[in-house]
């Protein structure tokens, strides 16, 4: 029996990943830049054993169906082939999220699976190699190998597409990300399907790609200068451009709900009233608000008149992936 355990934290992109150049290898169309957060994480234990004849996948103590298990098995096949191992595995994963409102993340899940499976088989991977492996499970997972800010360098091959840490002299610790959890029932379009439809059909997709390098440069400069306003402006602009591409897809779609728009309008209103904060959104209706930590209490106070307490979740910068020993798990 060979066991490994890992804990990985989710990340939110400030400059978004949206679209794949290679769907099989998960090579993206553009670089992206993220902040790893402390509030949501996944702990995963992988045990390879001679005693079982198929892979078994438990999520939050529930044995998963064949479809969910197949995704895990396909990922484990990559690890097994690297380690020249043919054993099946039991995978036990637990998501730690502050509410049950759809904030589970494939980024933390696949990063933790990559960390645990590679530790179990004693693959000694560098952070870049682990990032490459996690990327094969889910693109955004490659950024969750690092704490704080990370950039996924798109590269053009399996070997060259991975994330690296962005030096920031602790700037990430000056920041808070406040989640506004919107509960509207939405027709689900997974990020995987949504980005693919956009690449293939959106009249705005080329426009999206054209401004990526200047947005990335602005974000990295803002991090280097600890310039919150510049980072907030480019974060909000990147999210709006990404979501703009979905409106011009065929068929068109949006992840925004009326409640998302209410939250985004409030952010603009707060800013006009002298509270600097900026929003971002991913492939769902929840709105995430970037604010300086010194203004976190003022933002929470302003939000409490508009949303109930269960809808608000506060996160700060989180650590890199942790490979756990028996005692820690
Ligand atoms: C991001 N998203 O950069 C973007 C912004 C959603 C919107 O990465 O197909 O689960 O597994 O590579 O990583 C979510 O997509 O997609 C995502 P796959 P993933 O965070």
TrEMBL record:
The gene is mvaD. It holds the Pfam family MDD_C. Residues 178-312 form the Mvd1 C-terminal domain. This is diphosphomevalonate decarboxylase. Residues 8-163 form the Diphosphomevalonate decarboxylase-like N-terminal domain. Its EC number is 4.1.1.33. NCBIfam families: mevDPdecarb (TIGR01240). GO terms for molecular function: diphosphomevalonate decarboxylase activity. SUPFAM superfamilies: GHMP Kinase, C-terminal domain, Ribosomal protein S5 domain 2-like. Keywords: ATP-binding, Lipid biosynthesis, Lipid metabolism, Lyase, Nucleotide-binding. Signal peptide: none annotated. It comes from Candidatus Enterococcus murrayae. Belongs to the diphosphomevalonate decarboxylase family.
